[in-house]
Amino acid sequence: MKYALLIFSCLTWGYAQQLQDTIQSTIDLKEVTISALQATSETPVAYTNLTKEDLDQRNLGVDMPILLQFLPGVVSTSDAGAGIGYTGIRVRGSDATRINVSINGIPYNDPESQGTFWVNLPDFGSSVGTLQLQRGVGTSTNGAGAFGASINLTTDRMSDAAYVQLGNSFGSFATRKHTVMFSTGPISDQFELSGRLSKIDSDGYIDRASSDLKSYFLQGIFRDKNTQIKALAFGGFERTYQSWFGIDETTLKTDRTYNPAGENYDSEGNVVGFYEDQVDNYNQDHYQLHWEQAVNAYWSLALGLNYTYGRGYYQELNDIWYDQNIGFSGNTSANYLQLPQADAVDTENITQKWLDNDFYVANLMAAFEKGTQKLNLGFSYSSYVGDHFGTLIWAQNAGGALPNHRFYENKGEKTDTNVFAKLTHGVGRQWTVYADAQYRWIDYVANGMQAGQEPINVNRNYGFFNPKAGVTFSMNPNHQLYFSVARAHKEPNRTDFENGNPLPEELTDFELGWRHQKSNLHFVANAYFMDYTNQLVLTGAIDEVGAPIRTNSGSSYRLGVELDLSWTISNQWQWQSNLSLSENKNRDFFFERDDELQALGDTNLSFSPNLIGASQLHYSPTKDLTVSLFSKYVGEQYLGNIDSALSKLAAYSTQDINIEYTIAPSWCESLQLQLLLNNVLDEEYTSNGYFYTYDDDWTNPEMITTIEGVGYYPQAGFHFLAGMSIRF
Fold it and tell me: Could you list the residue range(s) of the whole structural domain that residue 292 is in?
């Protein structure tokens, strides 16, 4: 069937090319990719739009999840504690593996893990033109299905004029950011070349949680009345010291910044130092080509092509005393390292675990608009190949192994074919009907040997039909009511397969909302009910690289209300705020404790606060100066699904102050000075953690006892960033 769809798409493209011969010079080119993937006021889903100016308010070096932390239902996390390095985002309690991210319509989620690693694109916020966050299933998009939210980013549009911009910032924890941006402006009113180079360094709040980040962005645009061609090359390099282990409760109280990564022990079990190259080292390059074409007054077409090349490793010292007395991972054993049998012994060692991958994407989209009728058609195909392997770069006793000896090797291959159609149809003057149908085919194969000589053998095929429908009622130009129902499915990720035999997830999402819009006031109230079957919930535990471990939970749900306000009080005052109230439950949850299966009834879903709030109060006493107060509150949450008191993460709130001063002196177009004071009340808090259980059957062999453990990721107290940007 998918080949028939491909042939149909090609025929449609050929027919459109014939129609192009009759194009009139008065036809307006529509942004096909944006209209196909982003929601509008006629779409019955919950969404928030951000502009480049919105992102620039706090863009002094922190990663994208930190820039988005004040949006409704969002919780952001930082392993290093200050927003630079490895960061994460959750929306409505859903983790990054359920948040679909696309850049110019190209999927960004890693196909195997389904996560998003923003550390691989440092300072990408400086090259984003618009961003839309859709909460819930949202509208059909490309790539991994959205189970909690989707984030659609588009890169900068053509600049109106040529410029060169220099940006520098510095701050706490030896943080520095240096950025150079430029644009040629329109050349002959049709061409533009723009670009960016960025360098970010930070020691991190957590000990040794340093970041050495570099990135580039180059974009060329050709545009006339009927055609837009955009070619891009962008990417990044990151070298970060590992900080994904967290700390226990005792250490949290006595030494909040302690980092156990790279610990080196003597024969008596004393820490005598830290391995200086316990790092994550990764490069990622993206190449995109987008062609958008107006066919006639009603039809437009778009073709998008992408190639992403990623490669890198994480390097670590495997200390033999720790492995034999605390960790018990076996990663110092001769069998684990696959050393030659002759004279092979357990040995302290240093390894690199590699990922080398290629990702290809082709998108084809069509948009039709006539009066109150809009039709969007989309087809996407992606292919991913990822090589996983480990190399031994040093061992106390290598047993005759050759240099860079490979001790495991496996490969993952995944294809994703996606076709969708969206129809928006006005009925009378007040009603708009929305229909959206998507079908995805996924083929995933992984085979070979993993570290520790654990085989991986996955060969799965999935076919998912994801229908969506809704209606919008416009009572008058200022008031809208909307309702939608969406069905979604999602395949397990690689880690799920490594930890068992998972089932795909299923979700039915009900959204009901009211939008009120006036010239100075925008208010949205949205209620949702997300009903899951076999949701892959976070257990609270993490693997050896800090990746969350998930399991099917049977039946579960998320029920909530989101309030979002934007109010221009006067010429000097503006207030934006949001509040999310929710109930997030596993139904009839079972857990095996002390060798006995226990029925726990309805339990709280992990990492799902019932209360999340944010506020942005902006005061502009003059046109050049703006002082802003950013506030964030996240209610208590459980790190596991069994309602253990030990797993409860305390609520926290932060207050940030941002000061922006912009002038236009005679020697440059603009000069902006910025000061960001984070966590001004110096609150000690943790935004993330982990929870695990294991059965103790050796203390008393006649009785199995379930032991609980917890870890925390402390966040920085008061810290600052100061920046200056000059535009010529």
Answer: 2-727
